[in-house]
Amino acid sequence: MISEPGPRRGLPVRRLVQLYTGLTLYGVSMGLMLRAELGLEPWSVLNQGISRHTGLSIGTVTIVSGALILLLWIPLPQRPGLGTVSNVVILGLVMDATLAWVPELHSLGARIPLLAGAVLLNGAATGLYISADFGPGPRDGLMTGLHRRTGRPVRLVRTCIEVTVLAAGFALGGSVGVGTVVYALAIGPLAQFFLRRFAAPGAPVKPSPVVARGEASPERAILPE
User: Which of 7, 47, 105, 162 makes a 20 to 30 Å CA pair with 147?
Assistant: First the structure.
């Protein structure tokens, strides 16, 4: 006997809270990395370089670049979701707000712990909003879409994209430094830890492009960058 379906349920509150808390904290972490002035992750390096040449705030550039990257999804087997649109808008707004509230630091003794805290916060934010499972962000959607289209390993596609982005950002004057290296080494283990920490009870932890290896096909990643 097949029971009749009940009334349509709304979006789970927990997942929505995770999504928007994670995206907000991610934007804060990006702003704090900028204030640390010890090097940025690849996409922020590019956005900072563009910002310096256009006069636009880095948050505005982050929003515009995210929207433009979505156009590259058109030929790919990738579809945007709530997390995708939210990612484009929220990260840049929160990033600019963080820069407005946090003053510049000149002491290396203050900037080093700020960098460490920003990377840790980024890992926690990653676990929060990937676990929400509302669709990939524009940059990770591009990565997973190219993975599906080309059949190449996620690790290879990710590396090619980020090396290209980093080189372009560096050429435009974006900040590359020890923070770039620390982020690259730490974000994978941190994201994996927090993905397990924030996963819904009983839900399997699917791989994401942050921690993916080999031929994995991540379905849930919504990272910005």
Answer: 47
| Buried b / exposed e along 68-100 (16+ C-beta atoms within 10 A) | ebbeebeebebebebbbbbbbebbbbbbbebbe
Which residue in 87, 195, 198, 97 sits closest to 138, CA to CA?
Answer: 87
Which backbone phi and psi does 201 adopt, to 5 degrees?
-55, 125
- Asked if 117 and 111 count as a contact pair (C-beta separation under 8 A), the reply is no
Query: Taking the CB of residue 163, how many other CB atoms lie within 10 A of it?
Result: 11
Region class of 193: left (phi > 0), else alpha (psi between -120 and 50), else beta: alpha
Residue with tokens 């900037």: 111
The predicted model scores a pTM of 0.83
Name residue, tokens 């636009």: 56
